[in-house]
Write a structure and sequence with these properties.
The protein is of the alpha/beta class. It is built from ten helices and nine strands. Helix 2 packs antiparallel against helix 3 (43-58) and helix 5 (91-97) runs parallel beside helix 6 (117-125).
């Protein structure tokens, strides 16, 4: 880093502060903060903002909310307070998709889309698919639409729909037409203790989902039966300890080839990357 002595001192001080605050990736966060706040022309202003940002991170404000951006699958997304920050865990979906042979023009739904990370990454990898990102929350829908417009400048195309997945009437236009549904819904049981980044500083509706964490997952599985084409695929991310329950939900709703996939490469110290995949029976 090409920093002067004063800045180097503040970076060293920040490193100790972040360690004392039990931030799990001190060097990664520190480098991101330096890149965002110190490598600018107005060095005095940059240093002042850097110190403010370090203070916020030590208060366990999520890094993405501080810098206003998140990198996901080579996509520079804009995010902010009030929207879930995409995690690298979700790349487990795209690794699976890279091995599939979905027909050109197939329709894809990204449910509980948040800022649009998963859907936009699918659109980047498979521009021949028709991707629609569905989000209910007003704040998240704002960032979703902003990111779709932002990525359109790079030729990445997706659609946005603001809808509640519990309102099946909103999905009548998709009935029997969707080849793939992907979802990273809230799946944490109410009352479960989490790191403060999620328990205190993320929107609760994007994290928690009923007493067992499966409330929205149940709605997604039921909705999938209505909108998927026969033989269509459903992918849902969830907690590793929920795998058995999610598999049962799939099997109870006419899904076959049900498989739980765990990806250590996409996992980190905040959790394990795990999802369940299933295919709707051809006779549905």
């Amino acid at each position: 880093m090409s920093l002067d002595e004063r800045e180097q001192h503040e970076v060293a001080r920040a490193r100790q502060m972040l360690k004392a605050a039990n931030v799990w990736d001190v060097e990664g966060d520190l480098q991101a903060l330096v890149d965002r706040f110190l490598e600018r022309n107005n060095r005095a202003r940059a240093l002042y903002e850097f110190k403010l940002a370090v203070s916020e991170r030590c208060n366990r404000i999520p890094l993405g909310h501080i810098v206003g951006a998140a990198e996901f699958d080579q996509l520079p997304l804009v995010i902010g307070s009030g929207v879930f920050i995409p995690r690298q865990h979700s790349t487990i979906i795209h690794k699976w998709l890279d091995k599939q042979q979905l027909d050109e023009g197939s329709r894809v739904l990204d449910l509980c889309a948040g800022s649009g990370a998963i859907g936009l990454a699918i659109a980047r990898r498979r521009p021949d698919l028709v991707v629609t990102c569905v989000e209910f929350d007003d704040v998240a829908a704002h960032y979703l639409k902003r990111n779709i417009a932002r990525m359109a400048c790079k030729g990445i195309k997706a659609n946005a729909v603001q809808a509640d997945i519990r309102d099946t009437a909103m999905f009548v236009p998709f009935a029997g037409q969707v080849a793939l549904i992907v979802a990273n819904p809230p799946y944490v049981p109410l009352g479960l203790e989490l790191l403060p980044e999620w328990s205190s500083h993320h929107p609760q509706a994007s994290v928690y989902s009923g007493g067992d964490g499966l409330e929205l997952i149940r709605h997604i599985v039921e909705l999938a039966v209505a909108v998927l084409v026969p033989g269509g695929w459903l992918i849902i991310e969830h907690g590793v300890d929920q795998a058995s329950a999610v598999c049962q939900l799939f099997q109870q709703h006419s899904f076959t080839q049900v498989e739980v996939i765990i990806d250590p490469a996409a996992s980190d110290t905040t959790g394990i990357a795990v999802m369940t995949v299933g295919r709707l029976r051809d006779d549905c």
